[in-house]
Each structure stands twice: as C-alpha cells, then as structure tokens.
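Hi F.,

I've been meaning to write this up properly since the lab meeting, where we talked about keeping a consistent format for the predictions we share between groups. The idea is simple: the sequence comes first, exactly as it goes in, then the structure tokens exactly as they come out, then a line or two of notes. No screenshots and no reformatting. I'm using this chain as the first example so we have something concrete to point to.
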Amino acid sequence: MDAITLQHVNAMPAPTWHRLKMNDTDVELPEGLEQVCSVAMDVDASLIADEGAFELAMGEMQERFEAALAAAGPRVPLAGKPATSLDDTAYSNYQIAAAAAEAEEDVAATFETGMGNDTHAFLLEAAGAPTVIATQPGQTGAKATLHIDGIDGALNAAAIDVVAAPDSEIDVVIAFDTPEAGTGAIGATLRVFAGARSRVGITTVQTVDNDWITMDDEGYMVDDDARVEVVHTVLAGKNAYVGMAGDLRGKQADIDVQTHYLGHDENEIDFNYVLRHHGVRTTCELNAQGVLADASYKNLRGTIDLIKGAKGAVGHEAETVLITDDRAHNLTVPIILCSEDDVQGNHGATIGHIQPEQLFYLGSRGLSPEQAEDMFIRAQLERAAIYATDDQIAAGVARLGKALLGEFEEVGE
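Output, unedited:
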C-alpha cells in the first residue's frame, strides 16, 4: 500500500490545547506495507456468531430507548445553537455538534471508537469482516484469547465484535506481539456490546519491539446494570496508539478502566479515553499508572462526559506517572464535560521524577541511579508477567525484559 497518514487520530471531543498540540495526533504508516489479517484465536466454536450480531443488539437497544423516551414525555434539549445576535449565548463548535447529535436520539449514530471514525473505517477495511464473539443469555465462564502478531513488511489488522447477551459473562484477551524481528504495523478495532446485567472483561497487552507501530481502537456500548472491566497494558513499541470510547447508555451501567504503561528508548505512546454518561446512576473509573524512561514520550487524554439526563452519575479519573529520565516527555489531559447538575466528576494527576532523597536512599543500599531506574522498569514488566494469561504473552514480556534489562526471568502467579 502507499504511505498513509491518518489525521486527527485519538481526538479529544472538545478541543482545548491547540498551542501545545495535545488535542489529537497523526498516524504515519510507511509505504509498501501489505494488508493482511492473521489472527490466532483460542475460543470455543459455540461463541463464534454471525456477522451483524452487534448491529442487531444495537437495534434492539434503539427500540427500548425510543419506548422509554415516549413514556417519559417531552425532554429539555441540550443547549447549543449558533448565536444569531450579540444577545445570544455563544456556544463552542463542540457544544453545537453535541446538541445536534443528542437531538437525533439515534444510539447507533452516536456510537464511536476511541481512535475515531476514520481510523475505525481504515482498520475495518484492512481486516475485512469482523470476527464476532457472542454469548447466550445467562451464560457464564465464556473466554476468548486472540493473538495478533507482527508480520514483517505488513499491516496485520483485525476487526472484532463482542456481544454479551443479558445476564451473561465473558472475558476476552487481545495480545499484540512481535516474536519475530521485522518492521510493520499491528492494528485492531474492537466493538463491544454489554447487554443488560452482563459482565464483560477486556484485556489488551502490547509486547511489541521498537520497530513496530500498534493501533488499538475500541468502542463500548453498555446497557442497564451491565459492568465492563478493561485492562490495558502497553509496554511500548516505536509508536503505540490506544483509543477507547464508552457509552454508558443504560441505567446503572458501569465501566472500570485500568491502564499500565512503560515508555523507554524513544518510544511514543498516545492514549485517548472518552467515557460518556447517558444513563442515570452510571459510574466510571479511569485509572492509569506508568513509567517513562529514556527519551520516551506519552500523551494521555481522558474525557468524562456527563450528559444532560444522566442524574446521579459518578465519574472519576486519575493518573500517576513516574519519570525516570529528564529526556522523557509527558502530557496528561484530564477533562470533565458536564451538562447535568445532579452528578459527580473528579479528575487529577500525579506526575513526578525520582526525588534526590529517594536516589540517596537507594544509593545507600548499593544501587546506582541507573540501577534505580531499571528497578522501576522491572516493576512494570514483572506486573505484566504476573498477570499474563497464557505462556505466549508471558514469553513476550520476558523477551522485552531481556532486551531492556539484559537479564529478566519470567514471573509466575
């Protein structure tokens, strides 16, 4: 394929930091990459469903959504119209677009993935028809693992739909790895529908070497009383992009996101999280912890959108970043958007270097500054190894550990 630049990737819903170039990013894919879809799956055949299961679930939700709107009677629309005179309230382009989207009252039209519609369409075209994994009502213990390995000179892309039926449970692991030397890109676009009272666990792990680009694009729709648990582990790569968007559409829907990352060498890591609260008494947690070493770069955008009507909604986001080298560069953008009064939204970040007194203490125990830095890197790698769900993921972590530290033993639970 020709060289491609995907623009406005991982864009914040409400652009803010134009001057600091934090609103979005571009993804540059080199010329000559072959487009392939090669995914190794460990999943029970009974969980593989026909294409269109996700759209069917969204259609059923739309019908219930329209019935609930009709029963509730007229609604007060979101404010957000272009000013026609100096006496009118001035709204931003984001507010105008958001008000127009909500006025459509179309669940499928407002569904999004975190890296953006253009990136989703690109990955879907490269991957072909999505693999559909679906549970039956009341089913528990369902599991699936997908390994997407780098192929030298190629963009290996996958499209995955996960549909959890009401009262069911499923855990899905998606692993990005480069066990063989080479250069190229790995991408996946994931759509998840969590049916009423279901529990969905999604874990993604990136153990990618320095010559590779990764794109992890995710979108979630969460129904009444459903819970989604997401764990992202990113151990860098040349350029790593993660985008997640979640729509807490049902009442008392819940999303919990835990992100762990390690930046090293000259790696660049770019995150975008957008969690939208539509349903009443919905809750979300967005927590990130990372270590930036060497001349690595990281940008994390976290947006919690408390939409009018989401009464009793609660959203929390927090990030802790340890910077071990003066050359490392960190950007953190926590944002709360709010058009509803009866809600709670909290955000914060803790960012810091290793303090001189900490280095002094470690030095008194016989550790040099370089060894102290390696200790923090090792901690992130060991955590990834402990929580590895299969031997292949554990081997990827060990390979990276040996490349970064020279000596790294696999850690078991």
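Notes:
Residues 167 and 365 are 53 Å apart (CA to CA).
The chain has a mean pLDDT of 91.

If this format works for you, I'll send the rest the same way.

G.
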